Amino acid sequence: MNSPAQYAALDAWVDAHFDEEVRFLQELVRVPTDTPPGNNAPHAERTAELLAAMGLDAEKHAVPAAEVQAAGLESITNLIVRRRYGEGKTIALNAHGDVVPPGEGWTHDPYGGEIVDGKIYGRATAVSKCDMASFTFAVRALESLGAKLAGSVELHFTYDEEYGGELGPDWLLNHGLTKPDLMMAAGFSYQVVVAHNGCLQLEVTVHGDMAHAAIPDSGTDAMQGAVQILNALYALNRDYLKVTSKVEGITHPYLNVGQVNGGTNTNVIPGKVVLKVDRRMIPEEDPAEVEASLRRTIEQAAAAFKPPRGGHELRVDVKRLLLSRAMKPLPGNRPLVEAIQKHGEAVFGVRIPALGTPLYTDVRLYVERGIPGVIYGAGPRTVLESHAKRADERLDLLDLRRATKVVARTLLDLLR
Fold first, then answer.
1. d(CA 127, CA 158)
2. CA pair distance 102, 391, nearest whole angstrom
3. Cα 392 to the chain's mean position, in Å?
4. What is the distance between the alpha carbons of residues 330 and 235, in angstroms, rounded to a whole number?
5. CA 48, CA 189: separation in Å to the nearest integer?
6. CA distance linking residue 32 with residue 101, whole number of Å
7. Apex CA 70: angle with CA 64 and CA 75, to 5°?
8. Contact 362, 168 (CB under 8 A)
9. Which of 191, 205, 229, 400 has the fewest CB atoms within 10 Å of its CB?
10. Angle between helices 4-16 and 129-144 (to 10 degrees)
């Protein structure tokens, strides 16, 4: 049994090195990893340099350029740091460095790592470069004890979460570069996540017949056809409200059309319109059935569209962009859950529930292979509070400090 003195020693080490941890996070934020375009190898190189300065050697696993480009990205180098302490289980800590572009509306430099009123601002301060920092310094705190440990810890810093993880954790696992027994992925501090939604993304291309706007009946308006398809898709959201998940923290399925592109000019009847559809799936749903249902809805809406007399019928192509399966709890995650809950309550002073989340993450790639995993890290109570994927993303530094302690204590319990 670990003693209160050992936990206190871990906490004290984190406190003594916290300024260094914040500087490390600032350095990570200052190297952009906008995805798209996804030129993320430079960030991995910089991260490896920073880790080496702390005595942590990172293996660099560059994904071949052809695979990266086929995925619509520019460069990916995934990192693994292996710390072996003795015979026993291997625990992987995974955080991703790729992020969505900053967008508009920022009042702080998205790559500045500015600190204002106890919060650090910048893209990925909350999701999830913060947990590159929390996991790194938790491992350093653990090693500072000099305690006899059984097992190993691996840091997995990957760069393909925003595009589904196939060239991040999935690539590492498929190439036999890692096979942990347990894993923890970047998350927030006030709950331990044990399940999450799946995600299906489709690209729907609506083909009409381009024509001069002065004689609209001479063409087939792909935009009007797309609107008919959009109305049919959005109508599904009403039905989804009737489907509820039994997982606490997850409500019902839902659908979003996040991007619409098409047309040639204002005086031209659009000949082609492209829709990008995002369908979130609760853990109880079958992804194959969900995809088949969406394709039927699109097909039926297109067939119901009436072109002008003598015009061409609509033609619709549907391509799957992403299939991320839901994460379902595995029985082996109990030691992780219980340790995080125990230490989270001790450090934060609040109960840490085990819940599901409507997000989707890289964790499911480990869980699909039978590796029990949870989501826990540095961050506020909600995504909305963190401004993740919005302007002025931020992290309360007190949450970073406390989460680092919780992760360090959890590692000590699991490796004792």
1. 13
2. 7
3. 18
4. 35
5. 26
6. 9
7. 45
8. yes
9. 205
10. 130
Cβ contact 40:161 at 8 Å: no
Spatial separation of the C-alpha atoms in residues 223 and 306, rounded to whole Å? 13
pLDDT at res. 301: 97
Mean pLDDT of 340-348: 98
Asked if residue 2 has pLDDT above 80, the reply is no
Q: What number is the average pLDDT over the span 110-123? A: 98
Neighbours of 104 (CB within 10 A): 5
CB 73 within 8 A of CB 163: yes
Amino acid letter, 179: K
Tokens of 331: 């029985």
User: pLDDT class for 73, splitting at 50, 70, 90?
Assistant: very high
Q: Which residue has the tokens 């490390």?
A: 24
Looking at residues 396-403, what average pLDDT do you find?
98
Identity (one letter) of the amino acid at 374?
A: V
**Taking the CA of residue 396 as centre, how many other CA atoms within 13 Å lie in the half-sphere pointing to its CB?**
13
Tokens of 209: 């017949």
Give ∠ CA 194-198-202 in degrees, rounded to 5.
Answer: 165
Q: Which candidate, 331, 415, 374, places its Cα nearest to that of 152?
A: 415
CB atoms within 10 A of CB 40: 31
Give the span between the Cα atoms of 39 and 76, in whole angstroms: 7
The Cα 189–Cα 286 span in angstroms is 30
End-to-end Cα separation, the chain, in angstroms: 8
pLDDT band per the 50, 70, 90 thresholds, residue 395: very high
The CA-based diameter of the chain, rounded to the nearest angstrom, is: 84
Distance CA 12, CA 38 (A): 38
Task: Check residue 1 and give its pLDDT.
Answer: 56
Residue pair 186/130 in contact (Cβ under 8 Å)? The answer is: yes
- Report the percentage of the chain scoring pLDDT > 90: 90
Q: Which amino acid is at 159?
A: Y
Non-local (6+) Cβ contacts of 239 within 8 A are: none
Closest by CA position to 137, among listed 46, 61, 50, 79 = 50
